[in-house]
Amino acid sequence: MDDPVLPEAALADALKLTADAPSAWVEAAVLIPSTLGDLSAIERLASDAEFRARFQDDPSAAVTAAGLTPTAPLLAALRDRLAC
User: Fold this and answer.
1) Is the model's pTM score more than 0.90?
2) Mean pLDDT of the chain
3) Residue 43: inside a domain, yes or no?
4) How far is it, in rounded angstroms, from Cα 83 to Cα 76?
5) Which residue has the higher pLDDT, 32 or 78?
């Protein structure tokens, strides 16, 4: 009977031989999980003129008032979205 873990172990060994990912890729990947759940909120808030004005004055307070936690990735995503 084949060991079901063997292919995964071989893949792990092969990955150890590859070069590290560029730091920009790692930084971008870090942002993904924390913003995926907030994508609909980001779009909703970006279309709200009152929120945009509050965000410009005090980003953290505006996000908190909108019922979200002002994490660095969320604030960065909102800044990027509102800059469009």
Assistant:
1) no
2) 86
3) yes
4) 11
5) 78
3-class state of residue 31 by DSSP: helix
**Is the distance from CB of 58 to CB of 65 less than 8 angstroms?**
no
Confidence at residue 27, expressed as pLDDT on a 0 to 100 scale: 83
Instruction: State how far Cα 7 lies from the chain centre.
Output: 31
63 lies in some domain = yes
- 8 A C-beta contact, residue 66 and residue 55: no
Angle, vertex CA 28, rays to CA 76 and CA 57, nearest 5: 5
64 and 70 in contact (C-beta within 8 Å)?
Answer: yes
Domain count, the chain: 1
73 in a domain, yes or no?
yes
Range of the structural domain that residue 61 is part of: 22-82
Amino acid at 38: D
